[in-house]
Design brief:
Helices cover about 15% and strands about 50% of the residues. The chain is mainly beta. The longest helix has 9 residues, at about 270-275.
Length: about 425
């Protein structure tokens, strides 16, 4: 949780209209600001003004004994790309509250209040037409950027008609309530609609100190695009459930996901994997109408930037995929092992043949014919290998070849206790 920083580079001229009276007396000060030649920036709101761009303002200050600032009775700045009107209260020269009557900076247009909480930290209530959260989301979704800790506690209640997450990525009708104790988010209640398709709902934490979470979406492909994770998935309801566990300063998220009825198109890593496995017919679907999948499920955990996938499974009529391994968000790297099952529907039917099906298949979800694979390295261009002895081999023979294979790597410093939700 961070307070937005406002940066200004001089020169900027200020004319003082009224000043203090005798020493020790209270006084009022009025300032007129010419900000045309100043460089201004609010990085968290993705806004900046270059020198030479028109802007001017007025500020009315209340000063106490000794010239200590007690209030900004009124402040207003207007210009190209900026329209700001606010007031503020101070005690012992520390900000106590901020009343933002109107704030328009670039793509942000809102109003709200920020006030100190008696128990410590801040409370923000925000509403308005739009918020440009591009810079804020970069710290959440981009690999290599770790969240700040040991910040003041923060409570946020926001209602926004439109939130911009990045170029061509935005959400409508955003409702957000959250609480951070300064180290971790303790509760989150979020509702939004990704622009163009679907909906998303997130519930995290509850009264009494429990930290379960549930995320549901009617179109998780739209959610992946909104968060700038992938542009290659469309459609598909998704439910993610789990629980958070804190171990010292580290937080572990562990849970299970279920999805269905989605489509994958133009996915470079999957296309490369299918080509190396000589499944060219299936790979060609990616360049056309896409590969449909009817089922998605698996278990996961997230700790210190490492996502661990266990028993990930997805399948459709054309292909089935099983995978387990890790993804390092900070290093933008992946290490997965799994199985490709072509013609999944046909393989599944063969598996129902009494006795013979059980003998030939290599395990649940693996099919009669399959190829094992290993994907490792940078997410945008990983190294992919396929075991040639298992490609298109009967299941019992494939299992013979795979005897003694090492399990997927696990993230460092993972606690020994089981944190998988019940």
């Amino acid at each position: 949780a961070t307070m937005t920083n406002f940066a200004a580079a001089t020169p900027a001229s200020a004319n003082r209209k009224s000043g203090a009276a005798a020493a020790g007396a209270r006084s009022e000060v009025a300032l007129q600001l010419d900000l045309k030649d100043a460089a201004l920036a609010v990085a968290d709101l993705n806004w900046a003004k270059e020198p030479g761009v028109r802007a001017a303002g007025t500020v009315q200050l209340d000063l106490g004994a000794g010239g200590a600032l007690t209030a900004v009775r009124q402040a207003a700045i207007a210009g190209d790309g900026i329209d700001l009107r606010l007031s503020a209260a101070f005690a012992n020269q520390l900000l106590q509250s901020l009343d933002i009557r109107h704030l328009q900076l670039g793509g942000t247009n809102l109003a709200g209040t920020v006030a100190r909480r008696p128990e410590g930290g801040w409370r923000a209530e925000i509403s308005g037409a739009s918020l440009d959260a591009t810079a804020l989301m970069d710290g959440v979704t981009k690999p290599g950027k770790s969240a700040k800790t040991d910040q003041p506690p923060l409570v946020v209640d926001a209602k926004l008609q439109r939130v911009v997450f990045g170029p061509k990525r935005e959400a409508r009708d955003v409702r957000l309530k959250l609480f951070s104790d300064g180290k971790h988010w303790q509760s989150i209640n979020l509702e939004l609609a990704p622009f163009g398709a679907g909906s998303l709902s997130l519930r995290f934490g509850e009264s009494g100190g429990g930290r379960p979470f549930t995320l549901t979406s009617s179109d998780f492909g739209a959610v992946l695009r909104l968060l700038d994770i992938s542009d290659h998935v469309s459609g598909g309801p998704l439910t993610v459930t789990g629980r958070a566990t804190d171990v010292g300063d580290s937080r572990i998220l562990a849970g299970h996901f279920d999805g269905s009825d989605y489509n994958v198109t133009n996915a470079p890593v999957l296309a490369k994997l299918l080509a190396i496995a000589s499944f060219s017919g299936i790979a060609s679907l990616l360049q056309g109408e896409g590969i449909p999948f009817s089922h998605l499920s698996g278990d996961f955990s997230l700790q210190d930037g490492i996502v661990t996938l266990r028993q990930g499974r997805t399948y459709g009529g054309a292909i089935g995929i099983n995978a387990s391994g890790i993804m390092d968000l900070d290093k933008n790297a992946i290490d997965l092992t799994g199985t490709l099952v072509p013609a999944y529907t046909l393989n599944s039917i063969l598996g129902y043949i009494p006795l013979v099906g059980n003998l030939l298949q290599g395990g649940e979800g693996q099919g009669l014919f399959a190829a094992s694979f290993h994907v490792s390295g940078p997410l945008d261009d990983p190294s992919i290998t396929v075991n040639p002895l298992t490609a298109l081999a009967p299941g019992f023979l494939r299992n013979l070849f795979l005897q003694g294979s090492a399990p997927p790597a696990t993230p460092p410093n993972q606690p020994k206790e089981d944190v998988t939700p019940p």
